[in-house]
Amino acid sequence: MALVKVYVNYKKSILNPEAQAIQKALGRLGYDNIDDLKLGKYFEITVKDGVSRADLDKEINEICDKMLANYNMENYHYEIVETEAAQ
Amino acid sequence: MALVKVYVNYKKSILNPEAQAIQKALGRLGYDNIDDLKLGKYFEITVKDGVSRADLDKEINEICDKMLANYNMENYHYEIVETEAAQ
């Protein structure tokens, strides 16, 4: 089994009103140590056994490009964690 | 500067239709190696200098409980990455 953690974030040039609203609300609650807050998506994908690392890289990149991230507005990165058995 | 990465995921007992829809769509596209797909939120919080580790832990837990996660439906965990300077 492999667990793939995918992080999708807005590109720097893209405004994210939800993140801005949260940051402002934290300021109003007195948390004035917060310099910046970014909000993105986080996927945990469990992949079946028997997929080579090269195939897995190819597949994850395809999935991210096609479905998980909008390449006009978002960047993604991922990490692959090998696991012994299904959780 | 400290960078805090916060991961918010639905609890196991909570249905997540968005994650299910993505997983089914991947199956239809031929990605049948995917055993499970979870979708959560990912925050990157930059905290100003001069906050002790204990205060930072306290503050991040408060912020997560009050604002970033819904404790009825979601779990969170976080990691603190020390950084030299602002990005």
Automatic annotation (TrEMBL), chains A, B:
Its EC number is 6.3.5.3. GO terms for molecular function: ATP binding; phosphoribosylformylglycinamidine synthase activity. Coiled coil: none annotated. It is found in: Cytoplasm. One of its GO terms (biological process) is 'de novo' IMP biosynthetic process. Keywords: ATP-binding, Cytoplasm, Ligase, Nucleotide-binding, Purine biosynthesis. Pathway: Purine metabolism; IMP biosynthesis via de novo pathway; 5-amino-1-(5-phospho-D-ribosyl)imidazole from N(2)-formyl-N(1)-(5-phospho-D-ribosyl)glycinamide: step 1/2. It catalyses: N(2)-formyl-N(1)-(5-phospho-beta-D-ribosyl)glycinamide + L-glutamine + ATP + H2O = 2-formamido-N(1)-(5-O-phospho-beta-D-ribosyl)acetamidine + L-glutamate + ADP + phosphate + H(+). Pfam families: PurS. Part of the FGAM synthase complex composed of 1 PurL, 1 PurQ and 2 PurS subunits. HAMAP family: PurS (MF_01926). Part of the phosphoribosylformylglycinamidine synthase complex involved in the purines biosynthetic pathway. Catalyzes the ATP-dependent conversion of formylglycinamide ribonucleotide (FGAR) and glutamine to yield formylglycinamidine ribonucleotide (FGAM) and glutamate. The FGAM synthase complex is composed of three subunits. PurQ produces an ammonia molecule by converting glutamine to glutamate. PurL transfers the ammonia molecule to FGAR to form FGAM in an ATP-dependent manner. Belongs to the PurS family. This is Phosphoribosylformylglycinamidine synthase subunit PurS. It comes from Lentilactobacillus parafarraginis F0439.
